[in-house]
Amino acid sequence: MLIRSFLQAFFSGNYWRYTFLTSDTLNFCLSRIGAIWLILTVSRFFLNIPDEQVKTHWEWFVFIIMFWTLWERRPLVSVSERLAGRDIELEIKIGDLLKEDGAKVISINTTFDTDIDTEIIAKDSLQGQFTRKFYSSFQDFDIDLEQQLINENYEEITSKKRGKKKRYPIGTVVQVKPNNQLFYLVAIADLNDQGVAQSSFENIKLCLKQRNRSRG
To answer: What residues contact residue 130 under an 8 Å CB cut-off, 6+ apart?
Structure first.
C-alpha cells in the first residue's frame, strides 16, 4: 500500500511542481553543486586528474545532481515520531484508512447525520466512503447509531432546517462493528444548514479531554 501511495504521489503533477518549481529546490541544487564541485576540486588536486577528463564526464555530474535532488525531494508517504518520555510512537502516513487493520476512528457531526443520498453528507467524504463500503444504505447505518445513542444525552434543536434534530455533546463516541470491523465514530463537528461541518482545535482538545475522563 505504501509503494502504491508513493507511486501515486511520484507521478502526480503536484509532486513535480513541488520538486522543481520552488525556491527550496533551487537552493538545494545549488548547495549540492557546490558540494560536488568541492569534492572534484580536492580529488583533482590530490589525484592529479586532468581538467579534460573531468569535462568529458560532465553528464555524470548532471546525473548525480538530478538523482540527489529527486531522492531528497521524494514524496513522503510515512512519518513516525516517538513521544518523549512515553513508549508511544505516532505514525502519519498516506493510505486508505478503511483498509487498515485494527480499530479505526472516524469523525462525525454532533447530530450524527448520515444521509448521503441527498448529500447532507458528501459521498466522497471519509464518512461517506465508510457508509458506502460497510452498509447497504445510510438507513442501515442509522440503525446501528440509534442503538448506541440510546443512553446518551442530547438537546433538541429547531433552527436546523435539514437533517436530524438531536445534537449530542462534542466528544460523544459511538462504537459500531460492520463486517466484524471495529469503528469508533467521534462527534467532533457541528453541521450547519448548508451541510458544512464546522469544528475547531478547541473541539479536538475537548473531545480528547472527555475521552480521558471517561477512561479515568
So the answer is: 98, 106, 183
Q: Where are the domains of the chain?
A: 2-72, 96-215
132 exposure class (CB count in 10 Å sphere: 0-12, 13-18, 19+)? middle
| Cell numbers found for residue 214 | 471517561
Q: Decide: 145 and 112 in contact? Cβ < 8 Å.
A: yes
**183-191 and 173-176 beta bridge pairing:** antiparallel
- 106 phi/psi in degrees, rounded to 5: -125, 130
Sequence-distant contacts of 171-175: CB under 8 A, at least 24 apart = 171/206, 171/207, 171/208, 171/209, 171/210, 171/211, 172/110, 173/211, 174/108, 174/112, 174/144, 174/145, 174/148, 174/149, 175/148
List the CATH code of the domain at 96-215: 3.40.220
Contact 80, 90 (CB under 8 A): yes
Model confidence pTM above 0.90:
no
| SS3 letters across 2-33 | HHHHHHHHHCCHHHHHHHHCCHHHHHHHHHHH
Tell me: the pLDDT tens digits for 29-55?
A: 778 778 877 877 887 777 777 777 667
